[in-house]
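Reminder: ligand-aware prediction takes two inputs, not one.
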Amino acid sequence: MSVHLVNPSDNSFGTAVITPRWLFVLAAATPVSAGDPILVDESLEQITPESILPGDIVGISVHTGNALRGYQVGKIARSRGAWVVYGGIHATLFPEEALERGEAHAVVKGDGDLAWGKVVADCLAGAPHRVYEGGRIDGSEFLPARWDLMAPDKYMWASVQTIRGCPKHCSFCSVWRTDGQKPRQRNHQRVIDEIIDLRRIGFRFIALADDNFYPVSQTDLRLAREQNNQAKLEELLSIRRERFQLMEELARLPKDMVFFTQITMEAGEDGNFLDAMHKANIKGALVGVEAVTPEGLKAVFKDWNYSGDALARQLQTFRQHGVHVLGSFIFGLPTDKPATFDATVEMALKAGVTFAQFVMMTPFPGTVDFGRWEKEQAKDPPMVGDIPITRYWLIPTEVRPKMFTPHPSMSSDEIRDRTQKVWDRFYTWRAIWHRSACTPTLRARLGFIFLSKLYRQMYAGTGISTDSARRKKSKRWARWTARQCKRLFRARPMPELPSPVWADRRPGTIGQPAFATGDSQETAGPFVVMPD
Ligand code: B12
Ligand code: SF4
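Here is what comes back for the chain with iron/sulfur cluster:
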């Protein structure tokens, strides 16, 4: 009997940018008695059906974008006589759909770290339940990933999670509803241990796969003080202290390491936090700008974000503190007008963001926007074949519409066309060359240029360009660029890199890791400084 874990995808590139973390976490959650699981990431290559044998257990993760492919994989596995189990955000939101359309024996809702072992044991006993409640486990229970099972030459960036959940409540985002608004933080020692494992095998670029790296803002602290809520204040300060501890330890790692995360714009008001990020080699962060006008921000429940000149200043602050911004903007909001597109790209250029993404408004299940839209469509939803538009992820990709929510004044084609032009304007060779001046060496500059073009190109497959000839061409180009990028991202493995001896591993003691008790960076261990 084998356990297979499958990350479904219609698009296999042979190379991927970021490791799908769930695959390696569930591998760690697989009981030792079941043996090492077989990991299949379809963004690299498709699963071979013949590898699945009767009695095997196949775990499949689905988010909304890959649910349809995930259900195909489930059907294949079931027809081969395997136990089929789904998990991931989409299965959490629609367990019945996975049971019916994906022919699941079982579905895990929520976190899989603890639940997966039980599912495997139940399948081995021939009696899995239909639905398991994985819940929202505490940060101290998050499992470290099994990186020893990864093919290191296939990925450019590894991913390590430091925190789950987000206290905000943006209307287009499901994170605060599925992962919760209470930040669940991993102990910094566990995070560092995993990163050291990754650097040993040659990864120096690591995405911190967090919902919001800045869970406590200055405003939160001020409000708790004003309300004289000591318990709340202490809780917030303790979350914040742990963040700083993590960053202090990241700063002790080899200097060639580069981290990237996701953060709210509020961090721009917190110079100490940004400085700590810079020292920790967190060189970039995705910042959800979403809209550049106050009306747009109100429409997405994000009116705490800045707009106008204050927005440009806030984003520039990140840069001044040495943290590059990947600005994320949404188009298709009801408040958007034709002039919004130019205003947005001009703001992105003026604010000096290093990368930018311009996504089309998509009602993802579990969000406030989805709930509102589903209700509006309930009476008479447009159909594509026998699928109502409110279940768009079940429509085959070739005929799936690219926009779902009707706009009060612009057609879908107009919005897509204008969005495409914004991408083109932000990613001209000239603009990229200009932005690439922020890199310290020629090699790094080359990496920057390739990455900018790859980033731009990969999005062509996610809805912006629709005709198949163009998609094929852009896929070939992305494949080639991905190979060049991979070479530039690779680092010399450091098998000799020592593990910190954390005090909490020695019975009866608490406190600093052994190497952290040294006076200076130089005493921190034999770290080799690699050129950028
Ligand atoms: C890091 C991240 C990214 C990264 C890396 C993606 C990657 N290769 O892994 C980047 C930036 C590239 C990215 C891109 C996108 N992302 Co993203 N991303 C995340 C984020 C913040 C963390 C994901 C992660 O690694 N978590 C750590 C792992 C361990 O947790 P997990 O995946 O949830 O898995 C746990 C459980 O779900 C469960 N589980 C998962 N699978 C399975 C399977 C089985 C069998 C079982 C039993 C259990 C189980 O157990 C795991 C351990 O507890 C999530 C938010 C979130 N909190 O999930 C959004 C999120 C998944 N992304 C989202 C979106 C929308 C996107 C994009 C479409 C954005 C865009 N507009 O382009 C793209 C799509 C990319 C793609 N094609 O996959 C949405 C998905 C919404 C939805 N309903 O599908 C999320 C939820 C964020 C949001 N705002 O709502 N993303
Ligand atoms: S979009 Fe970002 S800030 Fe808003 S709820 Fe989601 S994770 Fe939090």
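Residues 50 and 271 are 56 Å apart (CA to CA). The chain has 18 helices and 17 strands. We will return to this case in the review session.
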